[in-house]
Amino acid sequence: MRVFVDADSLPVREREILLRRFSKDDVEAYFVADRTLKDVERAIEEHTGRLREGKRDLDRKELKKIRSTIHMVVVEKGDNSADDEIVRIATSGSIAITHDVPLAKRLVDNGVVVLDDRGGIYTRENINERLSVRNFMTELRAQGIKEEKTKRLTEKDIMEFADSFDKIYIKMEKATSCGK
């Protein structure tokens, strides 16, 4: 199983939760952004170091082949460049994390399980409604009828995100191991 993270806008606290889990379980994960994220780079280095521990009997060339399963994918700056890359590399049966509803729609249509940064799950059953609401609210803001307000991320939101991710992750791990 692979996990794809729309890392440009994911809060640091949630990235920390994911990075700990990915490092602990050696999850193949891709953080996609238009800039290098220091916390992700640090986690990759630490994870690589842990994977290499106790492997001193290997020659230098073999030791260098041991790398973290966490990846930082840096794309060119531009509208939707990170989104387009995630859609290009994410495969059916993988997990993606984003709060970008149009990106979620593209991924759900490709068979990817999508989680938002508040713990909500985008599905084939709810994605069109969520996209419609998002587009309607964007239209209201463009006309000056409603101002854009992003609700602050609370401890409860972070816990809901972590719990929701764990549930999806465990469910998909079981499905993957049963399919082997």
Write a brief structural summary.
The chain is an alpha/beta fold and 180 residues long. Helix content is 52%, strand content 13%.
Written overview of the protein:
The mean pLDDT is 88. The chain is α/β, with parallel strands linked by helices. The chain has a single domain, classed as Rossmann fold, CATH 3.40.50. A six-stranded mixed sheet has the order 3-2-1-4-5-6, with helices on both faces. The protein has seven helices and six strands, in the order βαβααβαβαββαα. Helix content is 52%, strand content 13%.
Q: In percent terms, what proportion of residues is strand? A: 5-15%
| Record field, number of beta strands | 6
Report Rg.
18 Å
CATH topology: Rossmann fold
Order of helices and strands: EHEHHEHEHEEHH
CATH class: Alpha Beta
What is the end-to-end distance? 12 Å
Number of helices: 7
Instruction: Indicate the mean pLDDT.
Output: 88
Quaternary form: single chain
Low-confidence stretches: none
Major sheet description = 6 strands, mixed
Instruction: Using the alpha-carbon principal axes, give the shape.
Output: elongated
CATH architecture: 3-Layer(aba) Sandwich
Structurally, the number of domains stands at 1
